[in-house]
Design brief:
- Helix content is 63%, strand content 0%.
- It is mainly alpha-helical.
- It has 8 helices and no strands.
Amino acid sequence: MEEALKDFTPEERYHKRLELEKPVLEAFWCWLENLNVLNGSALGKAVTYAQNQKKYMENYLLDGRCSLSNNAAENAIRPFTVGRKNWLFADTPKGASASAAVYSIIETVKANGLNVYTYLEYLLLYMPDTDWRNHPEELDVLMPWSENVKTVCGK
């Protein structure tokens, strides 16, 4: 149902959810309440968990801008969880700091919709010619949100 509503405005999505999805959820909760399960069984634990999460699972019905799933948020933090595993192998604090800096640059480049390889190549080509230590404002033209960088490194 949510797939069919993806192109709707938030207001339209809100009303359609109440019309189409709320009855399905109500039927689901009714079904759960009428199940006879053993409390300690795996099914019993699943039913109890679902019932305890009811108010949270229905939050998306309150606002058409809300998403039913948190997949977008999970996909956004996935690189950090991969990075966390790699950071275990940083031998020194300086090495860990350097890894974090590079990682931050790459994620910022991605967030600005640029080609990571092209941007790193651009950065390594032009940054050595700047006197950024004495004139930090010179870095502005090298930032991923710079219009020139977007033109050169855009996907």
